[in-house]
Amino acid sequence: MTFELFIAARYLRAKRRQAVIGVITAISIIGVAAGVASLIIALANNNGFRQDLQQRLLGAQAHVQLMRVEDHTGVKDWRALLARLQSTPHVVGAAPAIYEEVLLSHGSRAKGVMLKGIIPEDEKKISSVLDHLDSGSTDALKIPADQSLAPSNDPDTNLPSPALAPIVLGKDLANDLGITIGSVVLVTSPQGELTPFGLVPKYVRFKVVGIFNSGFYDYDTAWAFTRLSDSQKLFGIGDVASVFEFKLDDLYLAPQVSETLEKEAGPGFQTTNWIEQNKALFRALRLERLVTFITIGLIVGVAALNILISLIMMVMEKTKDIAVLMSMGCRRAQIRRIFILQGVLIGVIGTLLGAILGYAIAWACGHYRLISLSAEVYSIDYVPFAPRLIDGILIAVVAIVISFLATIYPSWSASRVLPAEALRYE
Question: How confident is the model at residue 401 (pLDDT cuts 50, 70, 90)?
Fold first, then answer.
């Protein structure tokens, strides 16, 4: 241990007559620890929300989507085009799909939902929603579709069709409408059918074969899946696909791969990716992270003021000791280092205690899901925490630097003590 560090450590252990200084020093350590712990917990919470939302979003949607923009009737020769686009670099999965908003009703209850027509084998390559079933099975979606659905223009009839197509619903959607496995639901297409009496709604009955629980409220309450061929017949659009969806080996390459897919598909196609679709959400999380860091960082600033006051009082208390040390040959630079090390020791001790406390609380809250949320408001049902080592290192560096800055004036003041003046009346 160096001379300066030895003296600084001794000064931290205040005697009885220096009890006030000892209390202020303890408050300084507690303040630094509280600030560091609060920052670690807050950033772990922010990072947990970002990771959880990103995981749930990407588990339910593709990294890149390609669609025709000039002709909204869809892509007719979609099989050949999809086979060609699958060989694009970084693409590890591709699937065709049809999206359409429909009215889904069961008994006296009805709700608008997003119906997605899929090929199950391809869908599972780009999405994990169908892997999270609460009940039922997706096996029925793999059975080749019947030649015709059984449309009905009379929604009041309860006679099931012998050719009912399978459908899979979200858990919250099923609960809202009182639907269970085996229930028959009525799906109303907004496209309608042209009859001698004009355009009338088209009704088709589906049989519920599965209920999924993705954990993401927006999907569980408003999404339904059926076979691609059944959705084509429901909307009367023929053998077309409206959207191509792709999964990448590196999701952060989505913008570059999007440009490549547009060029490969040719004129009339446009892509969108998960970064563009959720840009506002993740920008808000980044802004919240910055504001949180600045706001809670003020706690460390307050602790630094305590360090400043503690060191100033220590300099006043130790004026005679400083004069004796200097008269024995101690240089001014060594005196400065004594008080700088004293303040930095307070910062290091407080930072270490705060880091241990912050990581412990963040881990416990994340592992045991101690804080619950309303899924209807926040889309997830608990507060996620994901503490990162890099955040802890950054917070520790900032806390120690602030503690160091608080020592500059007291250490300079201590080094300006004149031994003769300090010892004149001793």
Answer: very high
